[in-house]
Amino acid sequence: MVAEMNEATQVVEQKTVPAVAEAAIVRKEAVASETVRLHKRVNEETEVLEIPIQAETIEVERVPVDHWVDGPMSVRQEGDTTVYPVIREVLVVEKPLKLVEEVRVTRKQTTDHVQQEVRLRREEITVERDAHPQRPEPIRASD
Prior knowledge:
Blueprint: E1 2-5, E2 11-15, E3 36-69, E4 76-78, E5 81-89, E6 97-129
Antiparallel strand pairs: 1-2, 3-6, 4-5, 5-6
């Protein structure tokens, strides 16, 4: 408010001056700029694998020996063959040991190759992007 005074200190005229102020309002909002789609696909492939299969057989062979020995005999190894002596006491004035037979046990290993079909799975993901993203609207000043 402005007042003018004359010499007699009287108020002659009053004027009202409006005060104007502008205020800016800033807002923040999330806007999608592009769209992404993921596609997952599982592929199966059939492969033939060669798998070794090991088998073990045991052969038992009885070998007659029939001769006298001085004392008990222990089990012995001859290559892949384990020899188990079989003795018998024979009643004589003395008791000599007579080797009657030997039992021979041989281990043999064989390996066969077999083919086995196996299904293997593999996943793939493709990404698809939207070519026209949604754009934010421009800010307009209010009147």
